[in-house]
Amino acid sequence: MPDQKIAANLEAAFAQHGFAQPSVAILQKTSGVSLRTLYKYYPSKEQMIIAALDHRQQRYLAFLAKDAPAPGMEAVIHAFKQLQQWMKGSAPNGCMSMQAIAAFPENQQIRQVVNSHKQAVQQFLAQQSQRPDCAEALFLVHEGIASAWPLMGEATIASAEQLTHILLEPK
């Protein structure tokens, strides 16, 4: 699938250069295809961003779920530890989705893709915890890790574990 390979290369380009800075010429070079082929699959820079974000979401959710224990508190803690590894290797400067919104705050298509991603993460946490009543709170913990990571690093994970115990331990 050439479009998936292009999307993967675009994801890498936006992760490296951000969203506002790279020109289409840089994106074309990074994508590894001709300008004509790039525009065939993604006719605008915004479509390129959406493709990169969609590709990243698929990778991210699969990464969170990798080697997860059975649903419950340990599965949520595992997801947060996976997030720690993701932040170290794939997002040391914070959440790429939120960076896309910051770069294109008025673009409704980008907003919609980011919103869909965030909803998928919240649903994932609801499934992993088996506590739909706590899904929003767990999602906020997840987002707190991603937002605070550039400043606090690994300390965010210890706090997330404490909060997870508070939220999910039987009363």
From TrEMBL:
SUPFAM superfamilies: Homeodomain-like. Pfam families: TetR_N. Residues 23-42 bind DNA. InterPro entries: Homeodomain-like_sf, HTH_TetR. Keywords: DNA-binding, Transcription, Transcription regulation. Residues 1-60 form the HTH tetR-type domain. GO terms for molecular function: DNA binding. PANTHER family: HTH-TYPE TRANSCRIPTIONAL REGULATOR YJDC, TRANSCRIPTIONAL REGULATORY PROTEIN. This is Regulatory protein, TetR. It comes from Shewanella piezotolerans (strain WP3 / JCM 13877).
